[in-house]
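Case study 2.
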Amino acid sequence: GDGIALVDVSAGLKQLAPAARRLAVAQLLFTAVAMGAAKGIEISINQTPFALQLANGVSVSLVTPAELSYLKQG
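Prediction:
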């Protein structure tokens, strides 16, 4: 592949508060990175593209490891 993982999730992601949503996406991201998706992930919810709002207010459709590195545990 091109180093990008495509992750389709349920609508539950939208129900989370923004900080919790970023944490959930970070878990998906770092799992995907560990499996070889070095460039990051693109998320869809029930096949509809989803943009994650970062802590700085910017919304991104491609979430990269650098953007959420501050959430990486250990």
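The chain has three helices and six strands.
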